[in-house]
Amino acid sequence: MRRIVTAVLRLAAAAAAAVAAVVMATSHQTIFLFGMEVQANFRFTPSLVFFVAGNAAVSVCTMVLLLVPAAAPSLAARLVLMVDVVGVKLKPTETELLLARSYVLGVVLTATAASAGAISDLGKNGNSHAGWMPICEHVPAFCDRVKAALVAGFVAVLLYFLLLMNSILFPSVSMGI
Amino acid sequence: MDLEQGKKAVCRVMQLKDKLISLQSVLRVAALLATTAAAVVMGMNKQSYTAVVAIIGTRPVTQTFTTQFKDTPAFVYFVIANAIASGYNLAVLVTRRLLQPRAQSLAVHLLDMVILALLATGSATAASIAELGKNGNLHARWNPVCDKFGSFCNHGVIALVSSFVGVALMLALNLLSAAAKSPHSNVSGQ
């Protein structure tokens, strides 16, 4: 039962992150402003690029862990799970290393969502003190896509932290975090 | 022979346990210092300069341009998040000895996760706005701000770096707590 819950949670988190990355990556709009062709694309803003890259990476890492059984002794599986990190004086066990990796991925996911949220707020409201005008009224389709991707990103963060709690509280079941 | 080896092993485990207790305290004090420094430096971040904007007849008309952290919601959130994190660290350090260690460690661990997420979002938000202020965005016609307000940007960068150090320390604290909970670990907890 717990195995099923863990697998479903992992799949849901990976799917949400993948959806966020894909929706953000397909957001672009071209309009005509003052006679010039102006393009809005996620690639023009480093924060949105970070969002796409971070969500894609975390989604791939989580899905890989779904497919690779945790107790597999083969070298390829161990490399994939990255458990052969030595040189730390406390000699952490496999569970702890996987947990550490899970934590880092969770923090990265949170950071991507936060930075994309900051840029979106700027695009919607602008900043009069810096002379930055809002752009959402000019490119509404782009803004809607970014909004949807952001929602998916925050859902992914929530699911990922649920997954993390599951791994901490029931470590034997969720060995392959 | 075996008994002596057993005693030596127990001694080593006890030393490790003491080291870990002090390691967690040291990490928490360091995180407290880092987040407090970030909040304070960003909270006192303000710069103004006067420039001549027009000349009426022979008299130049000057205007003062001021920028402060309150103008940007991202920086306001950054200061608030760091202040909450430093207050939480202070509270945990102060009440560590008063509560029962068993019940305390789970609550502290969960709250640690929440505060880590809060701090990570605050730092990431401020970092993305700082990057925009430094490089601008040509496509959205957003001009960079740092060439006019150099000192503001420098202080902001210091605060940001301090906050990222705080995030790393909180992550290390979280990992130690989580490692202490796993059943096959040889890492002992608080």
Provide key terms for this protein.
heterodimer; A: 177 residues; mainly alpha; two-stranded antiparallel sheet; 5 helices; 2 strands; B: 190 residues; 4 helices
Question: What features would you describe in this structure?
Answer:
The complex is a heterodimer of chains A (about 180) and B (about 190). Chain A has about 180 residues and is mainly alpha-helical. Helix content of chain A is about 65%, strand content about 5%. Chain A is built from five helices and two strands, in the order αββαααα. Chain A has helices spanning about 1-25, 45-65, 75-80, 95-125, 140-170; strands at about 30-35, 35-40. In chain A, strands 1-2 form a two-stranded antiparallel sheet. Chain A is elongated, with a radius of gyration of 20 Å. With about 190 residues, chain B is mainly α. Chain B has one domain. Chain B is built from four helices and two strands. Chain B has a two-stranded antiparallel ribbon with strand order 1-2. In chain B, a hairpin with a 2-residue loop joins strand 1 and strand 2. In chain B, helix 1 (about 1-45) packs antiparallel against helix 2 and helix 1 packs antiparallel against helix 4 (about 150-180). Chain B starts with a helix and ends in a 9-residue tail after the last helix. The interface between A and B is large, with 48 and 44 residues. Chain A: This is CASP-like protein. Chain A: Homodimer and heterodimers. Chain A: Its main location: membrane. Chain A: InterPro entries: CASP/CASPL, CASP_dom, CASPL. Chain A: One of its GO terms (cellular component) is plasma membrane.
